[in-house]
Specification:
By secondary structure, this protein is α/β, with parallel strands linked by helices. It is built from ten helices and ten strands.
C-alpha cells in the first residue's frame, strides 16, 4: 500500500467571518508539496476569506491551519510569511512609487535556503519584460506587467507555497496566456501553488487537485480528471 505523502498545507474545519457574519463553515484543504491546487467557486463564496484566514489576516473562529507540520493558527501574518508562504494578492498591489527593481529587491529573502534561489537576475530571466522595465515605477506598468511584478515579488521571498488570488483577473487574453505559461513553468520547477481563478479549463490543465466552495462550505474536492469529466458540476457551482 502506497503511503500518503505528507501535506505542506493542511486546513482543518476552518471557520471565520466578519463581525456578526459567519463566512466560512468548516473548510478542509490539503496541499502536498510540489503540487498545484485551486480554490474554485462563484464570487462571494469564501475563497479570498479562506486565504486571508490561513495567512492570519483574519482570525480563525474555529479549526486549525498547519504548514509543514507546524500549527500556524493564530500566528501573526509576518511570522507565517517567514515560514515560506507568499501571496500574490487580488489587485496586485505593487508599490506605485518604487521602480520595478526596487519592488523586487525590497522582498528579497531566502530563509529556507532554497536551491536554486530566486534572485533579481533569475526573476528578470523568467520575466524579460520586467528587465526591460526595471527602472520604471510601478504606476507606469500595464496590468499584465504589474501582475508579473507581483508574482516576481512573491518569488523573491523564495516561498515554499505560492498563493495567487485571482491570478488573471482583468488581464487581456494574450497576457493571461503569459501568466498561464508562467504558472506551468513554476509547476515544472517543483513550486507548490494554490491558485484562485475563474478560467476552469486552464486550471484543469494546470492543477492537480481542486476544491469548490459554495457559501463558505466545501461542496466538492477532486482531481482535474474528475472535474473535467463532470460539466454539470461546473454549471451548478461555477456559473460556466
Amino acid at each position: 500500500m502506497t503511503a500518503t505523502p505528507p501535506s505542506l498545507l493542511e486546513v482543518r474545519a476552518l471557520a471565520a467571518g466578519y463581525g456578526a457574519s459567519e463566512v466560512l463553515f468548516g473548510i478542509d484543504l490539503r496541499i502536498t508539496e510540489g503540487t498545484v491546487a485551486t480554490l474554485l467557486g462563484r464570487n462571494g463564496m469564501g475563497k479570498t476569506t479562506t486565504i486571508r484566514t490561513l495567512l492570519g489576516l483574519l482570525p480563525a473562529r474555529a479549526g486549525e491551519v498547519h504548514f509543514s507540520g507546524q500549527r500556524i493558527t493564530g500566528m501573526a501574518t509576518d511570522a507565517i510569511a517567514r515560514l515560506g508562504i507568499a501571496l500574490v494578492p487580488e489587485g496586485r498591489q505593487v508599490f506605485p512609487n518604487l521602480t520595478v527593481r526596487e519592488n523586487l529587491v525590497a522582498f528579497a529573502a531566502n530563509r529556507a535556503q532554497q536551491e536554486p534561489p530566486w534572485t533579481l537576475a533569475r526573476v528578470f530571466e523568467f520575466f524579460p519584460r520586467l528587465r526591460e522595465r526595471a527602472d520604471n515605477l510601478g504606476s507606469q506598468l500595464s496590468g499584465g506587467e504589474q501582475q508579473m511584478l507581483a508574482i516576481g515579488r512573491a518569488l523573491m521571498t523564495n516561498p515554499r507555497l505560492l498563493i495567487l488570488d485571482e491570478a488573471t483577473e482583468g488581464l487581456a487574453p494574450l497576457v493571461r496566456e503569459d501568466i498561464w505559461r508562467c504558472l506551468a513553468a513554476l509547476k515544472a520547477a517543483g513550486q507548490t501553488i494554490l491558485v484562485i481563478d475563474k478560467y476552469v479549463e486552464r486550471l484543469i490543465a494546470l492543477a492537480d487537485q481542486h476544491t469548490i466552495l459554495e457559501r463558505g462550505r466545501v461542496v466538492w474536492q477532486g482531481s482535474s480528471a474528475r472535474l473535467a469529466a463532470d460539466r454539470a458540476l461546473w454549471h451548478r457551482y461555477l456559473g460556466v
